[in-house]
Amino acid sequence: MSASTEQFDQTPNAEQRFREAFERLKLGVPVLLPKGSHVSQNNVAREAGCDDPSALRKSRYPLLVIAIQEWVEVNKGEQQLSERQRLLKQRRKNRDKRETIADLKKERDFVSGLLADADLRILELTENVADLQAKLDNLQPSARVIEL
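The chain above was modelled as a monomer; its predicted structure follows.
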């Protein structure tokens, strides 16, 4: 244990400092840590001004550590992202969107190809029907009106 940690732990209001740091982190207004730092046992110790984050031990401050762990568990989905985490999340979203756009373009091109093939087949069949109709017309005897 470092000398500053020992001195910090021995002060009568060390637990009070940890509790105040915990409250500041919960409210998102830390004094020593960057704004938006998430609540953790180590960050509470750092925010309380302790050089060694392991100074906040469960053996010394069991109720406080349990309260921190419970708060983290309950609020794990609500914690604010750091600027870097927010940017990374946005990049992933953008990459997902770009991949979706690329997939949609491939699908569009494939369907366009199917449509062009279908149009060509319809044209061929229409011409075939016209040819067959002409042959049929030539083969059927025409009804001649016989004048008597």
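The chain has two domains: 3-74, 84-139.
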